[in-house]
Glycosyl transferases group 1 (Lentzea fradiae), 836 residues
Amino acid sequence: MPVLWGVSFDATAMSGVVVEFIKIAKSFAGRGFGVHLDLGYDIKADKGRFFQPYQQERVPDWVTLDRVDGLRDIAGYDQEFVAATLEDVRHDRVPDTGHVVERLADAIVRTWEDRGVTLVMVENGTLPENVAYTKALYRAIEVYGTTHGLGRYVLWRDHDLMWQSEPDKYGSFPYPATPPMVNSPHIHYFALHEEAKRRTLEWMPHLRNLDVLPNTFTPPSRPGRADFREHHGIPPDARIVARFTRIIPQKRVDRDLHLVAMLPDTWLFVAGDTEEDPGETAKLRALAGQLGVPVVFGGVLEPCESAGDGFSVRDLLAHADVVSFLTSYDYESYGNPIGEAIAAGVPYIASRYALYDTVYAGFEAPVLDILSHDLPTREFAARVLELMTNAERRAEVVAHNQQLGMHNRAAAEDLVSGLFPPPMGERVRLSVVLPVFDEAANIEDVLRSLHDQDDIDPETYEIVLVDNNSTDATVELARAFAETSKVAVHVISEREQGVACARRTGMEFAAQRSRNRKDPGERFYLVSADADCKVDRRWLTELFAVMEKDKAAIGVCDYYYNDEHFVGRPRLWDAIQRTLRCRAVTFSLFGGFPDGKGFAVEREAYESVGGIEIFYQLRDGKFVNHLSDDWDFGIKVRGAGYDIAYAPKSRVEINPRRVNHALDEVITGRAYGNDGIIVMRDIRPDAPPRTADLTEEEALQAWEFSIKDFTPKNTILPVLLTPSFLDDDAVVAFFGQDLAARLGERAAEIKAEMSMTDFQPIHSYKTPSYRLYLEFRDEIFARLRATVGEDIGYPPPLPECFADVPEERFAEFVKYYCEDRESGEAHNYFGNGGVF
């Protein structure tokens, strides 16, 4: 069993830091990791728990409380030593720790060896409470990682900015006594928010591998106990303000007492250790008596994640009307109270401490400005009361906060999963990559079609859904689907907007993990799917069979429209069908090129050509992703000498919205941009689609743009990239011997003239393809009419600029026309992207 070792520099049994560790560790436990947690009793001196044995600390039953063996035996390492080094730090003196660091590091390594540790999570390790231990930890990470050949196996997260903002306690910038963060091949650093990241880089400007990992908001896994109120003597109709915290002066529980004194029929429930500071507890009890506030000091509750018999924070949240966080310090406390409230669907209130607006940007809550008012005001109490009693307003706030919180949680989980990906099933041979952006209306049907595949074992493939900044319920629906799916479903994210970026991220995620399969000698396939296109029930079976039989680098599917969506539109349907009939012929001859709607690539070939490449272009003065990453990739693979196979029985149904919601642009050949700019048009239905048939004039225009786009890419480009096609009997039969010979000769002349040896990016193939089309268009159309049908017709009219060109100079001016990048006329004549 792989083992995750967690170490907290907090030295508290259930602090916010520990709770956040548990939330992240839970995902690893679900993957089969054993989870060991060192609470840091032997690290931090001021909590008074140095070398104290674990006794009744409440952590989930899947967490093993552990600690480094043999620390007590290290001469000179004890609570007094740690306190003395912290005193040096406070005065910017570099403490003498050399005599214990090496032995501490050795003890850590021996313990990890004994437990079989494979992954490490460090929480608040940069906090300069114990610089000797921090130095030892860095040394142990390097030794252990090098010895075992581990990559970036350490997740190191610093929650607090206390060490950067409290010079009286931790020294002053640039913190000469604090161990510098190291650029290690074994460590990935995380800050809690962008401000913490900025401040960290201000101190360590050359630090790499630093990301933001916010606190996560995990929904409760069980309902609250119905007997909570009765057990604690709280009337069933009383409102409850919940506060779960350490009961110490800094947490300002007195503010809650003053607030509740202004709220009718309201009780205060304080969950926390009343023995940590008995004097503070006594003061609070006395103040409650003076104010006449009904208050329950409920002791330390078990964490939300607990499934034990005792009462937990989850039970308190289930009965609370509002959660309070009226603290005075700029860090969170026991159980991340605001996060727990958001996850549980309970409104919260807070004080505007130093970093509140950074940590909780966008969330809605009454906020007390403690710089202006140390205690709650009547106006603040009125806002709290409205939130507790106005059902409509309460529901709005809860829904808003939960939606934002779920997005943050998903982003955090995806970040961790991307860096520390879950293992791939031993029998998996195909990984289906599905980029998504705001596809809540389609995602369940699409996932169901990917799941319900005939004649293929669900353990032999997986689905990798790549969220590309969705703002709707796409991710939530996908996660819900994954919970009951027989096929493994992984949800990851890509923050750079663009389907090409998302597809590449999914492919890389799958390729990396596939290396750990049971039999790495087997061919492994990366498969592309589209989030608005459903696949037939034998889509994956037929695609896999062709890839295995032909040993091709790429397998291309068949794409079709359901005729039911075009009833009553015969002209439009005819134009679509003619294009698809042409494609069936050329794909059978040349294999076609991959379309993101459905293709497979063998992993070794994928990696050998450098994978999906993202090209950028300028649009309105800004760089945007070039849309044709799938075609670019096919060109790279074909140009590298690999074969592409066509799987005609592997079928993908194209969503009709691709035509219906962009029909005007389809007709005019501008569906994917113009002037050489190829970008994704958002075709989500924000207005009623055009469902009327085309006029005769529109139908002709749509067909002409479709065939002009189709012919250079599907009949000419293949022979440009692979001239040996012209030696194939079927290809020669299609073109005819004479045309095949002349086409090959002319292609070679143009390539030599242009000094082109590589036709990798999509823009490199356009000019020669366009030139050959214009020179051979009449003969190629004759062959299409003979092979596909007479209704294919004749080439669309030439651009008007050729009207005055002498026939003997036609090829010369074709060159000028196709190479004229400034006007973009050729791009607009041929259209951009696949029309149908």
Q: What stands out?
A: Residues 57 and 122 are 20 Å apart (CA to CA). Confidence is low (pLDDT under 50) at residues 330-335.
